[in-house]
Amino acid sequence: MTTRREIAAMIDHTLLKPEATGEQVAALIAQGVELGTFSVCVSPNQLPVEVPEGLRVATVCGFPSGAHATAVKAAEAADSVAKGADEVDMVVNLRQVKEHDWDAVEADVRAVKEAVGAALLKVIIESAALTDEEIVAVCQASERACADYVKTSTGFHPAGGASVHAVRLMRETVGERLGVKASGGIRTAQDALAMVEAGASRLGVSASVAILDGLED
Q1: Mean pLDDT of successive 10-residue stretches along the chain, which has 217 residues
Q2: Alpha-carbon distance values, 99 to 52, 173, 186 (Å)
Q3: 181 among known catalytic residues
Q4: How far apart are the first and last CA of the chain?
Q5: Domain range spanning residue 56?
Q6: Cis-peptide, bond into residue 48, ω within 30° of zero
Q7: Which residue in 73, 113, 122, 151 is the catalytic one?
Q8: Fewer CB within 10 A of the terminal residue: the chain, N end or C end?
Q9: Whether 176 contacts 150, CB under 8 Å
Q10: Where is the active site (predicted)?
Q11: pTM of the full predicted structure?
Q12: What is the CATH number for 176?
């Protein structure tokens, strides 16, 4: 049985509401420390933030639509890293995915990876809006572009968030070479455990307290 501590250490404790205030972000950070989460994930306009040693800072790029020009995504990502982000979660260009222009998808991801340098890059593929074949192909393109993780969802797309099926397919595609982050609609301990069982190595959640309250140390 996966423990509360182990799940906490996989969580990106997330606050991406556009109306979030600095005070709410400070509370998120304090809560992340208390819960023992791996990181806090905030919007780029919140950076820089003060965090204690050991708590990483993640942010998003091209969020939530992914429909930004590649140069804009790269500039946004570079600015976030310059302001202290350790990790960047970028949204793919879904038009390119739906048109099956895999070279363009790869180029988009590669440009952002080059922009973030040593920072960790996660690629949000919006799996609920994709076919299985598209999930596999966008994961493969992300790997070719040297991404560090593939991630299911923004949590903002009307098609929905993470699913066990998508996480399992993503893990089967990237093996142990990349991380897999499940995000979007994970609200209970049972949800979190199911995602980990399917192959998730990181969880993006805002309901961290409720999830961890359902687990034992």
Answers
A1: 93 98 98 98 98 98 98 98 98 98 98 98 98 98 98 98 98 98 98 98 98 92
A2: 44, 20, 29
A3: yes
A4: 10
A5: 4-213
A6: yes
A7: 151
A8: N
A9: no
A10: 89, 151, 181
A11: 0.97
A12: 3.20.20.70
